[in-house]
């Protein structure tokens, strides 16, 4: 591989592009009361443009009301979400300013990544910033093969150690190129067990930099199969969990849940809207919905159909 070097040399070159992402969210209390609490989040990200764009994981920032990004040199910079695709678990942040001396990472072509290739991950596992872990690419998985939730995500599998706080951080090849964004692990113990998954850089580039999937400011759980039947849905729906104040979803009038409930092995926030359709399409028609949303322009009318307290409603807004 052209430009490849040893791990130490490459790490020293690219580490300043890696950031710690700290978030604050409002969530429903676990006590059964109808009240909200502040919840902090911690993850990683990588600077990919000189004007302050940072790639990270959607699950880290999707419902965040406040976001701060810390660089290796210290000091926090405020940031906001400007694009997000929860179905691929990637998001794009815009920094309020770019610190002097910040290093911009180079996005690589993940289609050229090979099984067995040496890679390394840089992030903030358990808050320990700019930690390096080294491993290899152990697999490539098409959308829907690893986790039904991420229907648009192509994953590279790695044995480079990934733990809480690594989410959103970059995986580099030995040329110092970002070829993936850390998404999640599969674990029985709760710790790393050799099965880490990163969203390919080409998916992140296509959805966030070339087409700019919009951020709506809410998170939801897709209800299909038995879950859809539990909620008496005629078709799959998206159960709204939280809505960020001032977000496009809040302006649309979307409502989040108000009570935590255990459904099977999952804890859900219930009582909020269930999205049944988007722009006349079923919400589980992921690719069609994603294509339609990507084509929206200011002045276009946006509509969703929701089930609210047993009644079907249409919510609409003209995009600013």
Number of helices: 6
Rg from Cα: 20 Å
Low-pLDDT segments, ≥5 res? none
- Average of the residue pLDDT scores: 90
Largest sheet: 6 strands, antiparallel, barrel
**Mass-distribution shape:** globular
Q: Helical residue percent?
A: 10-25%
Class inferred from helices and paired strands: mainly beta
- The counted number of beta strands is 21
If you had to describe this structure to a student in words, what would you say it looks like?
The protein is mainly β and 320 residues long. Helices cover 13% and strands 42% of the residues. It is built from 6 helices and 21 strands. It has helices at 7-14, 58-61, 201-210, 225-230, 248-252, 286-294, and strands spanning 18-28, 36-47, 53-56, 66-70, 76-85, 90-95, 106-107, 118-123, 131-141, 155-158, 170-173, 177-185, 196-200, 218-223, 237-243, 259-263, 266-270, 274-278, 281-282, 301-308, 311-318. Strand 16 and strand 17 form a beta hairpin. The radius of gyration is 20 Å and the shape is globular.
């Amino acid at each position: 591989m052209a430009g490849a070097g040893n791990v130490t040399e490459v790490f020293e070159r690219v580490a300043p592009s890696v950031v710690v992402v700290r978030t604050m969210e409002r969530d429903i209390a676990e006590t059964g009361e109808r009240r909200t609490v502040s919840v902090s989040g911690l993850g990683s990200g990588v600077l990919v443009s000189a004007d302050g764009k940072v790639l990270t994981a959607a699950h880290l920032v999707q419902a965040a009301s406040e976001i701060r990004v810390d660089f290796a040199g210290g000091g926090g910079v405020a940031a906001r979400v400007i694009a997000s695709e929860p179905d691929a678990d990637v998001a794009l942040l815009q920094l309020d300013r770019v610190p002097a001396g910040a290093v911009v990472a180079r996005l690589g072509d993940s289609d050229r990544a090979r099984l067995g290739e040496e890679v390394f991950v840089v992030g903030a596992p358990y808050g320990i910033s700019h930690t390096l872990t080294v491993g290899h690419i152990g697999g490539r998985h098409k959308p829907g093969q690893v986790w039904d939730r991420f229907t648009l995500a192509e994953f590279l599998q790695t044995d480079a150690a990934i733990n809480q706080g690594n989410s959103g951080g970059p995986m580099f090849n030995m040329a110092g190129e970002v070829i993936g964004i850390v998404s999640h692990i599969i674990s029985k113990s709760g710790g790393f067990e050799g099965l880490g998954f990163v969203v390919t850089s080409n998916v992140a580039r296509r959805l966030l930099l070339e087409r700019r999937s919009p951020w709506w400011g809410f998170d939801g759980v897709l209800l299909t199969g038995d879950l859809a039947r539990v909620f008496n849905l005629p078709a799959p729906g998206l159960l709204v969990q939280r809505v960020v104040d001032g977000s496009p979803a809040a302006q649309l009038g979307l409502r989040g849940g108000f009570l935590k409930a255990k459904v099977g092995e999952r804890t859900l926030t219930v009582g909020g809207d269930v999205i049944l359709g988007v722009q006349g399409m079923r919400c589980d028609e992921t690719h069609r919905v994603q294509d339609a949303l990507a084509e929206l322009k200011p002045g276009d009318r946006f509509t969703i159909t929701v089930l609210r307290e047993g009644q079907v409603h249409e919510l609409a807004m003209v995009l600013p």
